[in-house]
Amino acid sequence: MKRTLLIPVLLGMVASASEPPPLGFSRDRAAALAPLETRLHEGIRPERCRREHRILTEEPHLAGSPRNLELARHIADEWRAYGLEDVAMVEHPVYLPWPVRYEATLVEPVRQALSLTEPGIPQDKDSYAQDVGIPYCAYSADVDVTAQVVYVNSGNPEDYDVLASEGIDVRGKIALARYSMPYSYRGFKALTAQQRGVAALVLYSDPADDGNGQGEVFPWGPWGPEGHLQRGSIVYDFNLPGDPRTPGWASVPGARVVPAHDAPSMPKIAAAPMSAKDAGRMLEVLGGPPAPRAWQGGLPITYRLGPGPARLHLVIENDREVRSIWNVIGKLHGRDAPSEWVILGNHRYAWVYGAVDPASGSASLMETARAFGELARGGWRPRRTLVFASWDAEEFTLTGSTEWGELEADRLRSGALAYLNVDSSASGPAFSASSVPALAPFLREVARAVPDPSGGSLYDAWRRRQETKPGEEPPVTTRLGSGSDYTVFLNFLGVPVADLTFEGSYGVYHSIYDSFTWVDRVGDPGYFYHAAMARYWATAALRLAEADVVPLDYGAYAREVLSYLDEVRDLAAKTKVDVDLSPAREAADRWERAASSVAGRARRALENGDAAGAARVHAALMTVERTLLDDRGLVGRPWYKHLIYAPRPTYKPLVLPGVVEAIEAGDRARAAAEVARLVRALGLAAAALEGAN
Ligand SMILES: [Zn+2]
Predict the structure, then answer these.
(1) Rg (CA), the chain
(2) Which of 198, 440, 618, 636 has the most Cβ atoms closer than 10 angstroms to its Cβ?
(3) Residues near ligand 1 ion, CB 5 Å cutoff
């Protein structure tokens, strides 16, 4: 058998002699990496992703439900069988309200109860399930109101301004808003409705946005059938994610708690989701002026603004329970640096079956863990510790990951190299990556080492699908907002993060039709992209765990910050807020110089086999993201500590949040103070790197 092994070893040597080693690797270590990557890639199988995916999507598994606990046990058992170590189910009691009542009856001009259910589809037996629970918007206030309906388009501030200019008073009315593409977070629509004084908010899925206006609907295509509705949280987690009772510390049994209803993340308005089928009953009978052309949707009617004559009786009631949620954590302890962690995470719980969101990601995570476990059972051990996480209750308020991040804050702040998040792994074939700028070059390089199911490398497929111009790199989104489990790592702990997905047309998000059949038939038949994600994820984690020098590029980061400062300068000029940004520019320039000199230092150390030099650079690089945090946090939301990135209430990214929000508030003194603390952070970032030279 030795003879047959010789050939791949030789081939590997030839390849490594002609190509530069991967970022952060010396030639020696790169030679050891190549066969490990081959074994990981070969160990990952699409059909195993499919089998695991069927288990994960077999039944609805809301957070706090017995089924979701059962799935946690299943994952823990599997991980132990794979060979992961210290597999634990970590319990967090958290405020997690469930719906008790949701009724909507049109009382005028005709009386008609709305169904508020999603009809079964013969091709998908799972769509007939009776135990899917009441559809709801988590953290909605309770309401029992009868009021006229007014159509508010997307329910964004500019929409209410249009209504006001038409002389339409929305106060005390029921606002009917559509979920719209491009996506704006439903919690922002709720906050806006609350600020405008509406009595309650109904959010519906218009066929123009994610239904037959886009193309073929499920079961023949990826778009949402007329009866689909989108559940989801309306929590204001852009103010504070995690259990509202424990802002900034972990909810563990016996922990100190504050009243949930006082938390800045709790909406004061009632909201509920609806299908186009039900919403159409109201839209058909709305009077008032016709809605603007851009507000016309995909139903075969003229959309009118109201208010009335449609009047709706709406009852929304939730319990106020504290329920236990369970993160599953498994590890492969590092042989050389066990306190340095590379973390791979995905959430487990879903609104119903969650076949794409998040079970596709869970299936890829399981296969990634299994492939690593197989290596470990053969005697291999990563240089640093690999941590696998199955988060609970992400959909509520990023709850599980936030509580665990707060629980492990000290260890993560000192030892976490990177957090690699996958929420949905595959709703189609188009690869998309977001990360802090320091990880972007690394993410592109990893794509060169992973095959794409369409043939060639993932890197080439990525460029092709993004229509990247010749000579240009495929785009990594480096402006991070929020909306998935990376938030605690970036914004609270200062850990470099990446968020990965394969995307496609997907109109069944958070509905009952986000089912096994949708994925198996439409989203990823054959599960090739689930496997591609597992290979990509595994390759990235392996390289981070094995590199001589962690491949974080702070020159790229500093240049991004310089470009943000240009934007801030333009914003300040436009809003006539006089603020001196030159100290920030100088600090970012100094950071950039320090980063490029460290990059040279790392290159020489790797080329010359200078292990001590490489270790010094590595140790310095690991501290840099942390320096970009200020423990006092942002004005009005102290949990958010990162000074370069924060989410807006829409979940859209906000860069240099402290400075920008001060300028937007027209507060010159505050803007100057924000520039000062940005300068301090950038100075610390530069100093961290200068120390390694
Ligand atoms: Zn998700």
Answers:
(1) 26
(2) 198
(3) 357-358, 423
